[in-house]
Design brief:
Elements: H1 4-30, H2 71-80, E1 89-91, E2 97-99, H3 107-115, H4 117-121, H5 126-171, H6 184-199, H7 203-214, H8 224-237, H9 241-246, H10 253-275, H11 284-300, H12 302-326, H13 330-344, H14 349-357, H15 362-371, H16 375-397
Antiparallel strand pairs: 1-2
Helix pairs in contact: 1-5, 1-16, 2-3, 2-5, 3-5, 5-6, 5-15, 6-7, 7-8, 7-10, 8-13, 11-12, 12-13, 12-14, 12-15, 13-14
């Protein structure tokens, strides 16, 4: 029998799933934005009436408002693997061509390739079946993340405060990515569950989940830091120091997972990610150039100004939450800092998608959960978040840029 707070959390998640997905579909049926989307320097060329003509994975009618942008790469890999002949390619200096999907990590589409099988049996098209699988995985991952977040903060905030903390995640403007064919839902489920298990000193399962999180998104490798904190805490209080030392190699599993991935996919990933998408690790000069250009554009373009304001606002909140939670949750705070720093210093991506990247920072939700004890803040923040969520969900349904 589930405890009453967990039942309540599951029902809130279920209502959120139905309402958000329903809203995205109804809104897309009722009215449409004026094309193209001019929010970024390159989005106008990608959001015209026929811009999806060369992107077949985004054209299937089943659950179509729940796929856009990166969704096509996950759908492609789940159906045809990384060397999909229908996927667009990028050539290296030697002329060797690599599918653009190589820039995306394998665990999410691998799960989709399994979960899609019952939907294929029901008669859905291959793309429709993979879309259904991707949405289901995202939703279930989100539920796991909510339960883990509840478990992490319950001792501090109590049952009601822990549920409010989880609710802060659900209503955040970019929470729509937790219900579509993107990796955020699965990653949060794996990473937050790993963090919760670390606090319970269940290091083996926590390390396994950290491995899977690393194979979902590169920043999963940052879980090595809270794993080290958790191991050291268990070592200090262990009666059997020798047994505790035997568990130390568990800390290295996320790094090992990353190295295994690099050995298999590292070369094509690097070529596509750097050459086509313009991102790399600690590309500080490129990052400065990107921010300089987008801030200059924001002065003249109101659409760009809104994108920039949301990105900066989201990052500012996430960064503020880290020192505020550092004393009580040091492992979570350092994980969030690294998980945010990697994409924010990677080049162009931080200027365009930072508002989405903050979803994986657990201390952000802890901070908002604490602040929501104020009735005034709780109501005001909920109103602001839900209105922005509705706007972004609508734009995503029409393949406009969100984050």
């Amino acid at each position: 029998m589930l405890a009453r707070p967990i039942r309540s959390l599951i029902l809130i998640w279920l209502a959120w799933s139905i309402i958000l997905i329903g809203y995205i579909h109804i809104a897309s049926m009722r009215y449409a934005p004026s094309r193209p989307d001019d929010s970024l320097v390159w989005t106008a060329g990608e959001t015209g009436r026929r811009s999806l003509a060369n992107k077949p994975y985004l054209l299937d009618s089943f659950l179509n408002p729940l796929v856009a942008w990166d969704s096509e790469y996950y759908l492609s890999v789940s159906i045809a693997g990384y060397d999909d002949p229908t996927m667009r390619t990028f050539a290296d200096d030697d002329g060797t061509e690599y599918a653009l999907s190589y820039a995306f990590f394998p665990f999410y589409p691998a799960l989709m390739s399994v979960v899609r099988l019952p939907f294929v049996a029901l008669g859905l098209t291959p793309i429709g079946a993979s879309t259904a699988a991707g949405v289901l995985i995202s939703l279930l991952g989100t539920l796991a993340g909510l339960i883990a977040l509840y478990d992490i903060v319950r001792a501090e905030l109590g049952d009601d405060g822990a549920i409010r903390t989880a609710f802060m995640l659900l209503i955040f403007p970019t929470s729509l990515f937790l219900a579509v064919v993107y990796t955020e839902g699965l990653f949060i489920g794996l990473a937050f569950s790993s963090l919760a298990l670390m606090r319970r000193k269940q290091l083996l399962v926590a390390a396994i989940l950290a491995v899977l999180a690393t194979w979902t998104r590169a920043v999963g490798g940052a879980l090595i830091v809270p794993l080290l904190f958790a191991w050291f805490a268990s070592y200090r209080t262990a009666d059997n120091k020798g047994g505790a030392l035997l568990r130390l190699p568990l800390v290295a599993l996320p790094a090992l997972a990353y190295l295994v991935w690099r050995a298999i996919y590292g070369v094509p990933f690097e070529i596509v990610e750097v050459g086509f998408f313009g991102n790399s690790v600690l590309a500080l000069s490129r990052t400065v150039d990107a921010w300089t250009q987008i801030l200059e554009r924001a002065r003249a373009n109101p659409q760009t100004a809104v994108v920039v304001a949301m990105n900066i606002g989201g990052v500012a909140l996430a960064l503020l939450s880290i020192p505020l939670a550092l004393r009580r949750y040091p492992g979570l705070a350092l994980f969030g800092l690294i998980a945010l720093a990697i994409p924010l210093t990677g080049g162009w991506t931080g200027t365009q998608s930072a508002f989405r990247y903050v979803l994986v920072v657990p201390t952000l939700w802890i901070m908002l959960g604490r602040w929501s004890r104020s009735v005034v803040f709780d109501r005001a923040w909920a109103l602001l978040s839900i209105l922005l969520l509705a706007m972004l969900a609508f734009l995503f349904a029409f393949d406009f840029w969100v984050a």
